[in-house]
Amino acid sequence: MDLSNPNDPLLNAAVTSIITVITIILTLMENEGNNRQGIAKEPSLIREQWRQAHMYRILTAGPNNCVHYLRMSSAAFYGPANILRSNGSLHDTRYICVEEQLAIFLYMLGHKAKNRVCGIEFIRSGETISRYFNKVLGAICSIQ
């Protein structure tokens, strides 16, 4: 095998073999990552229905339910929600509406709840709770 000659058939065969082996290894590694068995999650649709039912219970289930959860009546709750939505400080996202964002914020303040507790209560991740808490806090500060 002559390494200085690029037309050497033995050199071409060796390079082709090395490239083939590398391609096979990379393909196997990629497939191994896709076949990992993790914790099975329930469908997102079910979680979304639970979230909607939870918000419905908070805001409309009884005269004192909203007061117990958010420390204000549902009529008082819709005022700030409409203000934050109308002035453009907050808007509905693909995953969470303004009312739920504000409810998370008020629940955390009203109950001195930790991020983890609020995540369990609203069926959201800790990152989502933190993100929307900070968004609502910024929106309320921008109203002044």
Automatic annotation (TrEMBL):
Keywords (A to Z) from UniProt: Membrane, Transmembrane, Transmembrane helix
Record domain DUF8040: where: 53-142
Entries under PANTHER family matching the protein: OS08G0106900 PROTEIN, PTHR22930
Descriptive protein name: DUF8040 domain-containing protein
Transmembrane segments: 12-29
Database matches in InterPro entries: DUF8040, HARBI1-like
